[in-house]
Amino acid sequence: MALGQTECQSIAVSTPFPAAKLGDWHAVAQGVHVLVAEPAGVNLALVVGSDRAVVVDAGSSPAQGRALRAAVGSVTDRPLAAVVATHWHHDHAFGLAGFAGVETIAHESVRPRLASAAAAEEADRLGFAATELALPTRELALAAALDLGGGRRVEVVHLGRGHTDGDLVLVVPDADLVLAGDLVESAGPPSYGADSWAHEWPATLDGLIGLMTATTRAVPGHGSPVDREFVFEQRGRVAAVSGEISRLAGLGVSAEQAESRGTWALPFDAVRPGLDTALAQVRSGPRRPTLPLA
């Protein structure tokens, strides 16, 4: 059974968000557990050391975050050292409010994202007030390490922009495991949005691949754990999408024409939400230098 289903970046609902639709914990390595939170099918993780534990991603609402916090107690009595949000999207960060009194960590781009009109609109769609959202208490630019005791540490690193501008990856060296957020997907294709960086995503995945060996497994934001070969293959598809967008932009093809005019290495429906942004990124990029006329 897959650990997660496909991501839904925007869920229109007419009733309040279900508070506690959490699956059972599954061990993916010694002391590393993952459960799936619905309706987004998102993987939420718990890394346990001898002294402390870390939660990775917090669920889709303050109520779901509180339910997740309670669920941690069914696995360990170790205190939480931190909760890390791999990026700002609702299914990963809107549950941070459920962890009052615990340090919450995210990339430095996440606070303004969670305080934005877009986040407020998303909260409204999910059935709660934007004022219930909590901002991360600690901002991260590049990297940090969390000592959980017993020789276990978790390394948190921003390898670059891709799915969003604030993607974080967590490495658990002693478990030979990485938690990749939505930089990698196995329940469906990678998900592009208006906040994605399609042309930087391949290089960010290069950094992730560089952290992996032939035996390392990666837990994606949605879906079952994958190996280095899977990530490498997905990186190739993401790079092909970037190249095709650049080609079409050079031909002056519009987003509305792109499906029929392009050859797509990923399902077009996954790319289309981020296509306008990706085309604009090409057209606003550095101009090719020209020789002076005189």
TrEMBL record:
Residues 41-222 form the Metallo-beta-lactamase domain. Pfam families: Lactamase_B (PF00753). SUPFAM superfamilies: Metallo-hydrolase/oxidoreductase. SMART domains: Lactamase_B. This is Metallo-beta-lactamase domain-containing protein.
